[in-house]
């Protein structure tokens, strides 16, 4: 990539820089597929606004020269409180796809989440020396659902993450306007032959494979079939969080699917404190949707999260340079987190979770407190 004729663009200094580089190399419809949200994208933008309205209260005189970002997430050791979020169709962005991301995550020392709709076989996604989570959609093909659960255990996954906020795909207007369809090389190979859906629109593909009738009774079905920690992704209401824990969930991901499902849904960061208050220490809480830098990770910790799932910035790194691009993006994030923690007077993750937070004037305290 160049910054003009014969001039190399500078190395990225932020994850926003990585996105700019990715946008320069991706086809416009592919960039929109990754960047876009549903409807008018009000929730997509509100996710970022929520982070911008959340102000940390740093502590002083703690003698923090360097911050220790190491932690555990769902029982998996991690170099920082971050795991790669489950995302479909990586090969749309770069031909090396999910294996490149899993290797970069392993090298960075953070868990990688393999998605049901991955474009490469699960056996290729087990990072050498890395930690693996497996994301599960509730499929119309119940036998395939059971197979995926069994595969998670066979592959040594540390947790099973059941996505519960996609009975069907939200109306993603950028994709509809672009006529975006899943190319053959990125079709989800871990589904049965009749479900792979190359050439379908993303919404049409989801409608063909995802069962919209997922219920609390089905959660019990999943719980009975695995010994793995079970995590529900897509929880925003404290009452749902409580019920999930009562039915055996070991963790929750507070998420609005990155603004790609219900447009107008509460920003994930606003929903986090009330859910932590409701469940206490009964389960781990992860947050996703809108995380774009190390200070965002620190904000999530201060509001009660155990860590975050990182989505789009990983794909921007993949687009920019394959495995090395993801490695660079994760290195930037860790550097930002270390600096933010040190400046906030938090020597480690436990201290980060004790930091105070103040919301910008005008923030609804029922959402942001």
Automatic annotation (TrEMBL):
Matching CDD domains: alpha_hydroxyacid_oxid_FMN
Q: Which InterPro entries match?
A: Aldolase_TIM, Alpha-hydoxy_acid_DH_FMN, FMN-dep_DH, FMN_HAD, FMN_hydac_DH_AS
SUPFAM superfamilies recorded: FMN-linked oxidoreductases
Highest taxon, organism lineage:
Bacteria
Q: Which Pfam families match?
A: FMN_dh
| Active site positions | 257 (proton acceptor)
**Chain sites annotated for binding glyoxylate:** 137, 172, 257, 260
Q: Which UniProt keywords apply?
A: Flavoprotein, FMN, Oxidoreductase
Q: Which cofactor does it need?
A: FMN
Residues of the FMN hydroxy acid dehydrogenase domain: 7-362
Q: Where does FMN bind?
A: 86-88, 135, 163, 233, 255, 288-292, 311-312
Q: Name one GO molecular function term.
A: FMN binding
What protein family is recorded? Belongs to the FMN-dependent alpha-hydroxy acid dehydrogenase family.
The record's PANTHER family line, in alphabetical order, gives:
2-HYDROXYACID OXIDASE 1 (PTHR10578:SF107), S -2-HYDROXY-ACID OXIDASE-RELATED (PTHR10578)
Q: What name does UniProt use for this protein?
A: 2-hydroxy-acid oxidase
């Amino acid at each position: 990539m160049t910054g003009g004729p014969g001039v190399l663009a500078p190395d990225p200094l932020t994850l926003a820089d990585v996105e700019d580089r990715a946008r320069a190399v991706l086809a416009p419809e592919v960039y929109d597929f990754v960047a876009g949200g549903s409807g008018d994208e009000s929730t997509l933008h509100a996710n970022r606004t929520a982070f911008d309205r959340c102000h940390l209260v740093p502590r002083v005189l703690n003698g923090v020269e360097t911050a220790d970002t190491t932690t555990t997430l769902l029982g998996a050791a991690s170099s920082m409180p971050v795991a790669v979020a489950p995302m479909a169709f990586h090969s749309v962005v770069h031909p090396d796809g999910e294996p490149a991301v899993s290797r970069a995550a392993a090298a960075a020392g953070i868990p990688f989440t393999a998605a049901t709709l991955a474009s490469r076989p699960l056996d290729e996604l087990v990072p050498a020396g890395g930690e693996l989570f497996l994301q599960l959609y509730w499929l119309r093909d119940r036998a395939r659902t059971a197979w995926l659960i069994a595969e998670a255990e066979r592959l040594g996954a540390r947790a099973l993450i059941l996505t519960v906020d996609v009975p069907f795909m939200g109306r993603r207007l950028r994709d509809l306007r672009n006529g975006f369809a899943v190319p053959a090389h990125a079709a989800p190979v871990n589904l049965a032959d009749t479900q792979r859906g190359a050439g379908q629109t993303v919404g049409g593909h989801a409608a063909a494979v995802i069962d919209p009738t997922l219920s609390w009774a089905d959660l019990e079905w999943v719980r009975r079939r695995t010994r793995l920690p079970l995590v529900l992704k897509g929880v925003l209401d404290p009452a749902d969080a409580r019920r999930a824990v009562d039915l055996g969930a070991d963790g929750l991901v507070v998420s609005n699917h990155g603004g790609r499902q219900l447009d107008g849904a509460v920003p994930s960061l606003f929903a986090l404190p009330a859910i932590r208050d409701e469940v206490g220490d009964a389960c781990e809480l992860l947050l996703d949707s809108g995380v774009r830098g190390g200070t965002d990770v620190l904000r999530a910790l201060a509001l009660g999260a155990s860590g975050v799932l990182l989505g789009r910035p990983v794909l921007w790194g993949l687009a920019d340079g394959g495995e090395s691009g993801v490695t660079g993006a994760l290195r930037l994030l860790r550097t930002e987190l270390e600096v933010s923690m040190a400046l906030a007077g938090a020597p480690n993750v436990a201290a980060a979770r004790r930091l105070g937070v103040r919301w910008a004037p005008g923030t609804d305290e029922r959402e942001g407190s």
